[in-house]
Predict the structure.
Amino acid sequence: MGKALIVQKFGGSSVANVERIQNVARRVTGYRKKGYDLVVVVSALGDTTDELIELADKINPEPSEREMDMLLSTGEQISVALLAMAIHKLGYEAISFTGLQVGIITDTSHTRARIVKIDTKKISDELKKGKIVIVAGFQGTTPDQHITTLGRGGSDLTAVALAKELKADQCEIYTDVEGIYSTDPRIEPKAGKIDAITYDEMLEMASLGAQVMQARSIEVAKKFDVPIHVRSSLSEKPGTMIVREVKRMEEVVVNAITLNKNESKITVCDVPDKPGVAAKIFKNLASGGVNVDMIVQNVSHTRKTDISFTIQKAELAKTMRLVRKAAAKVGAGEVVEDADIARVSIVGVGMKSHSGVAATMFETLARKKINIEMISTSDISISCIIKKNKVESAVRALHGKFGLNK
Amino acid sequence: MGKALIVQKFGGSSVANVERIQNVARRVTGYRKKGYDLVVVVSALGDTTDELIELADKINPEPSEREMDMLLSTGEQISVALLAMAIHKLGYEAISFTGLQVGIITDTSHTRARIVKIDTKKISDELKKGKIVIVAGFQGTTPDQHITTLGRGGSDLTAVALAKELKADQCEIYTDVEGIYSTDPRIEPKAGKIDAITYDEMLEMASLGAQVMQARSIEVAKKFDVPIHVRSSLSEKPGTMIVREVKRMEEVVVNAITLNKNESKITVCDVPDKPGVAAKIFKNLASGGVNVDMIVQNVSHTRKTDISFTIQKAELAKTMRLVRKAAAKVGAGEVVEDADIARVSIVGVGMKSHSGVAATMFETLARKKINIEMISTSDISISCIIKKNKVESAVRALHGKFGLNK
């Protein structure tokens, strides 16, 4: 066995074509040369998954989830075989496994399965033989050997779970950016790479729309204290460490500004202000499969109130149908949609111990003449819904105000 | 359980696109509607396998056979999932399995594995639930769960082996032709579909270049007496039955005329006529991985002789290098290649009990002024090597002479 074990995960864009697969092989073998044991988790090549979904859709627009998993899991199987071949070409030993072969046992919830346990014997045996072990991300198997998948971004989860079970010294998530940024650098060029961030902050950012890592994988990393290193597959520079606690020289209140333009707002007007009415509306949405995000109900001085909430834009039409029905049933008034909104959020564990952060945020937006339509807070974040065309200027103003410009 | 069990195998061209997959689904469910239990074996979609081989070649021109099997087995996995979805769309129950999942246990010879045993419990259980069971052809697994493949045409073998283990009432091999023909209808329009043919004749035809079914699968069918029905996936007409013995009203001497234009001839001149010399030449070729087909050595009146043999045309350059080296070592003379040849053969179990068949063949060719360069015979076939540009006229003359014109 080598001096230490690293789990490395490469996403679909890192293995999108022959050159990139060769690049990953060079990086992996570079670590092997330094003496590390390596378990490499790979996603499907580039757009393979989307292409397979499209093909299935032509044959059956409502495909069985079990068969969908059969179909989609081929994507990663192709990647791991090709990466093994690329590593062999460089003169190193490697062996690839599917989730089923390696023993990633999940429950039976096809297309969104949860990992139940991982049998690490096969991996350990191959590591002992000096091989680089390549594991198909995103997939597992039920105890009865039906293939399952872990949901979008599931390869992150495979990597974190393997790092935990194998007691890896490091878990590296490779992407096409250099790490986690204080905000989107395309909007604020003064955004800086964050050297270290806590699981909680990262979870908050993921739920607020940052698309670097799958939220479930961060939850697992937090639960089992697996330190994660998010970094670029095209550079040797260190990226961002995601850990339990970050000891910073100077206390930082706000660590990152996130934005999300994929939500829409719906307002149900004149809802009778009686117990159980809101419950009825949202129960209707839940059984229709709609994920509701922020919910705001105005304090009512009359017997009627307005309830606003946000949802994923892609679900707007479906949600409007469901809400109109529910509104009629409970005797509410008009239902108004607004797709022209965006969410801007500030995130930082430092907020817990600092007062006045919300006030500073509201003031900063007010100074830019940006109207706040909804507010929602958590322990470590504050979000505001504003008009979509104001979101870039809001991000820049907040990024400067909270001292994140580099 | 239904009234009888049919194993149906559909090749890559039968599932090459969405429409054809839907066509297969309609055919399969048509049989289900009639009350049959069904196990369906499917190959990879159209050119998938070739595309994956090409991709692998770009990454590593000498890929590990284990990883090649990992890669190629995804092709059938995609097919079975899509066919299951297409069958679901028609309102029938179906479930797909990979070779590994279903328990097709093979030896560890990757890319050309032999089936050791098949665990039929999983299939039987699903059949009992009333499901159509779809199995990925061409693939299996070692006892340690490493994925293997059975070699080109291996899906035929999967179907025959499953039919045997499941004691199926029928094993149907679907192709894009109506069955086995007395010769290639593109050359002789009077060629007729053969209603029934023996395993031995079919094996002989496969080894002589007929490309309808994989030879190994016919061997297995013969060994376990599995009757095979080769038929068209686009028509309801009966095709050709392959069985142990065909009781024909009238004894037929020759059943089919085959031709093969993919061979080349090599002649080693002036080989010293001593024991062990020929052995040295062919041992050299064998260790170089060259498959030699026909071998003819002329009777020698001097101390020197000429040895001619045929090989696959694709191996001509490589073989010439090996032969020239070997010829020099044993003190032989010139080595001459001839890619301009073809083989024409007559096949029929009736030959065993009839004399004069060879004479009739040679006479027929002579009458057409076709020179015979090499002759080779077996129990149930006679082959002649002739000039390539004469092969069509040879086929037509023999087809007529042996009473096969319809």
Notes: Chain A has a mean pLDDT of 92. The longest helix of chain A spans residues 65-89.
